[in-house]
Amino acid sequence: MKYLIPGLFVLLMASCSKSETNSGDAPITYYHEKYRPQFHFSPAKGWTNDPNGPVYFNGEYHLFFQYNPYGDTWGHMSWGHAVSKDLLHWEELPVALTEYPDPATGDSTMIFSGTVVIDKNNSSGLCQSNECMIAIYTSHVHKGGEGKTQHQSLAYSNDKGRTWKRYEKNPILDIQRKDFRDPKVFWYEPNKSWIMALVIPDLFKVQFYKSSNLKDWSLSGEFGNIGDTLRIWECPDIYQLPIDNESGKSKWVLSLSGSHPAGPKFVGMQYFVGEFDGATFKADDPRQKPLYVDYGKDFYAGIVFNNIPKEDGRTIMIGWANNWTYGNQIPTSPWRSAMSVPRELSLRKTAEGIQLAQRPVRELSMLRGKEITDFENIENNSMELEIEIEDDGSTGLSIVLKNDSATTYISYRANELSVDRTTSGDVSFNKEFASIETIKLKPIDNKIKLRVLIDQSIIEIFANDGEQSICEQYFPPSGKMKLKIAGGWTIYPPLSTNPTDNIDRLDNIKLKAWEIKSTWQ
């Protein structure tokens, strides 16, 4: 990876407008490209990965994200920035926090993951009025492509995030380690203090710090070395969630990114349910098998929005819809990577204990267009399916997406839900991409419910009202889509050559489908 020398260090601003002029030529139009998601956020151009500092402030949802202003692969990490009124329609703003050089040493500091909070009572002393936006992030100091150290820094904005100034006394937290990153900061009302959770990745440890002014921090507790430790830990988050159908009851959740349910070759997210006492987190069952946020290959670094209004009351997470194993090679241009649909989180009691439940944000229903009835000639490859299956133990389901010669399968059979993208189109860009994901899924009151979001190159599935989720990328050929629903024991590709095993039965399936309108047009 090459880095710009200080004398040539230029700040490039990315625009998410539909077009821009290129040297007086015809305008360049974005958001119409092959594979471009139409209701998932992606920057107009360039590389993006982890969402950073999502926050609500004065009528706007702010999404910051890891961003390379100079190209469409990882490098030159800075914070991109977009705002939305409804979590769906995003306006990309100029880069918020940029990589910068040290003129004395020639080292460059990249802006890694972090948080944005609203300092409502000017506890930091950095606000021009009674409140302002504070960003706390990891400064990644490197030279010649080699990371030297990581510490936590602060920047602040007094104009609703449009411009930022780095705190002159940075760093605000430094324990002299090469890997020490990804601060999540929030206000903890019971003891009137700011809390920071961040990781020592290679030690599988989350540390907790507290502060009264966002600038001076003291260690209050540690958590770690349990759950899935097959890959380094990153991007911790901690939040309190209500338990569905348990009025007034809630638990704390600590989520973080690391290994995948399929093993450490891929990245994924796990979480723990427990209690937070203002100093540290304690899991209810430290010996419990790992719990994963998503069972697809393409949901990582999820983090929840700060400062959601109390009258709203939701906890909303957004994640990166890609995987480090093949992320730099996915066949998109001039952008690479997108975000998931924002998800509303809660907890639910199950036979296996209290577990996370996730649903697309309620605002998504506003994008529903006309109902789809002709599944042989689907013009709009951005759609939503709602499916309910009466499962008496002798039934199955297969959703077959056909794009020319490419086929993608979503199947349910014998208490298992699977997504097969091995023949879904372009799978050749990385040998690890073609895969089949399978999760256990039991009927509730003899019913299986699936909510399937399909958006050009992203599929998100929410099963049984969010009990399980799968987020997957796929890259089908251009053109119209055909969709086939098969019932009974019919599963595609067929599991048996016995004709009696593959008899369609559609009387037990309820299906509704809608086109989803583009948020960019």
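(the above was protein one; protein two follows)
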Amino acid sequence: MKIKKSLFLILALLFVMASFPFAVSASVERMQDAACVRKFDAKPTVDGVISESEWGKPTRTVKDDGTLCSVISMRVGNTGKFADAPKNPDQTYDIWLRWDNDFFYMAVKTADKTHFNKYADKADSGNVWNGDALQISFDTLGAGNAFASDADKIMFALATDGTLYKHSWSCVFSNVEGKDTLLKIKNDGSYTSYEIAIPWNDLMSGDLLKKVKADSVFGLTTVVLSATDGDYDGWLSWGDGVCAPQEDSSRVGFNKIILSDLSASDTSADPAFSRYTVTFKNDDGSVISTQKVFANEAGIAPAAPKKDGYKFSKWDVSFSKITADTTVTAQFIKIYKVTFADYDGTELKAVNVGDGEKATPPKDPAREGYTFTGWDKTFDAINSDTTITAQYTKVEEANNEQTGEVITTDEATATNEAPVNNEQPVEEDTPDNTWLYIVIGVVVVAVGIGIFFGVKKKKA
């Protein structure tokens, strides 16, 4: 009995241990990856033989077990979640990314005992799922595009008849099919190896070529497709945008590849690119969204949250350059109703205005026989529900004597004409003072004569 119990416990433990990796992968959070691209000191020999002495250590080992955040495979489907166990053969592959001033280099090595691809006719370019192949999508603008499209892809394959096959769906890669691109695909009965060297001036032109220097950032997705004995059995992708579409909520877009001055022959580990968590919260502390952001990059704000009776104002801290785990909280301001009303209370316009903000009035209203003079209250800084009423003055009418036209007082002033009064002036009685003036004149003359003769007599 004890032996049976012990055996049962051992079997249960083995079952838990066997299922544990897949339990972990089922909850993996998918996100963009960032990888260092080391520099070749000397150009490699593109011969389909990938050695550590020539290429150094792999940039990434791509597995379908949830260990890489940007990996997805055919068996995952559209949910972005990993299945409990792989239904397809192991498609693990190593990938090397290198560069120099002339070329972008890539090498891929995947387990493949029986290489198969039906490509023999290059005219058959539309069907890429005919066997073992490598597809890539290269984004010359780095973060310029979130996801690849059919116009961004190129495929490399070794046809069953030994023909090396490369095909582009994009003008960006239009020269990749030419002689300048170096390509060698080789299967040794255990592995299929791809070695590729693409000239930078086939990937971009003009000012974009100035981006080819240390610390430059580009985007890359790689996919290995596999077939066994003529049957296509799946694909494994590092990054999104080449194979089956995923739901937007689970997509990660291109992986970032960052050119480095580190030598390909250097055996030290590739540098890690720090990533921080940015959490966006509502003002009540509830989480709106979280995201992982590489150091010194910007977070992406979610849609502005809503709150009854309030207006979203801003986020409380900057997230344009993230250097640590950051919490960003929504800020709101109280909304007040501002009603613009006419003299009789008729509503002309109603607007919701944030606390302390200025309301925008309607077009000046018109009222027959009156002139609009403004509003009864200021509205530059609203801090409560407010009704603002139009103000008027009555128009005074006047008669233009020349034309008989009735014009307003304002019109008369504007034409520099005095308003005409229709009433006849009242005549006032003016007293007749003529005799008074005569008497005064005689007296003045008499006095003058008297003074004249008096002076003369004294001299005599």
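Reviewer note on protein two: The two ends are 182 Å apart (CA to CA).
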